[in-house]
Structures
1.
Amino acid sequence: MSTILVPSDFSKNATDALCYAISLCKQMNSELIVFHCSHISAYALSTATSETQMTHLLKEDEEHKMEKLKEQVSLAYQQQLNSKVPDSTRCMVSYNPMLVEKTLEIAKNNNVDLIVMGTHGATGITKFFFGSNTSIMIAKSDIPVMAIPENYQYNPLQQIVFASDLENLSSELAQIVPFAQSAESEIKVLFMDYGIDTEHTKINRAEAVIENTPYKKIKLEVQKATIETSLVGQVKKYIGLNKPDCLVMFARERSLWDRLFFKGSKTEDISTAMSIPLISFKKK
């Protein structure tokens, strides 16, 4: 895990995500990019009487936003680590009305391994960017996206829970393990068992996959499930009892598992329902 990106709109919500990412970068020895996608209203741009004047307005806005971004990052480092901003942290500002698309472009061009964003608690343009756009980012991004709940305080990633239907465990662990290795975290593969597989074929196969995975900090946890309670509710209960540091899921085409889990919601929307950070990987 070499590079983490945090989109920022200067809100408290963005600062919370930034503070989390700063500590995560320290734990994983990663570089950090903090990106602000500058947006000027159509009204402001309409005051420009020439292309030269419009270019000047955009440049002036980017310079102002860069200073503001550097100040936010500096204060976040003081708050989180009581230190100055290291050379491994970069600030970037670019004008584009397509916020999600530009952020993904920046992430891909800079070989970003993880995008960290905040959720909840926003109004106005902040709500637009850190509400719906967190879900859109999860839905569109091929890069893993980590959604940080409002007011969540950083805990070192010691235990990661991966809620899985065990259907593609080998390929999915191949994506999760590098992240867990960077943090030296334990992976708990959580399988909610509805008792359909009476021969335990799926569980036995999963145990074999885990046994043959070189990373040895992986355990399978089987929990009895009931159709009387939503699966997401049962997972939330498990999280409340076991206090993991992060939940991992995969964004995918809607399957029976997804319909059971979300009861009409999507993977990208469930990020706002969890009390701990959720990392969404794109199903390959």
2.
Amino acid sequence: METDTELPTEETVREALRKVDDPEVGMSIVELGLVYRIDIAPQRVHVQMTMTTPACPIGGLITDDARRAIGAVLPEGVEMDIELVWEPPWTPDLMSESAKQTFGWGV
């Protein structure tokens, strides 16, 4: 059965993820450059993200928070997939300019 479900845009999902902070640094995972890719397909949203290190002790917490934030903007029946990836490895170069300035990098 086909539905008239309006999918969120990539920007809507990115804005939802801006509300997810890395609690160790108190900054959005988007600003930290942890969100690599957002794909919107019929009835499915796929997000590729990473952590600053594979050994991140709060990776599960951040992923759960991201899942809740995305779920809040998804219509019922739309699936979500969050994929943790390690390639390319995260570096501070992926951070937004404002995040770099917060840490005193690239000023």
3.
Amino acid sequence: MPNARMQHPIQANTLAEILERVLDKGIVIAGDIGISLVEVELLSIKIRLVVASVETAMQMGINWWKSDPYLSSSAHQLEEENRLLRERLDRLEARLETVR
């Protein structure tokens, strides 16, 4: 008897459709882990995972990659601008203290 194999065809287009739907709509996986000893919480871990396309994430208000200095060249400029503004604010506050 020849080698009888049972084949389970997985249609690539079905898998692609599922992936497209997940990226289009987005999916959120959330979980909390807590470790307590004698009713005293020692450790609390919150896990949040969002899988979505960039467009869907931006519609949800998620755009952390725009300000991440490792992912965005403009983030370095923003960090420098914020540092300079903080220094300026500190100088202005110091001047106000001497006037009072």
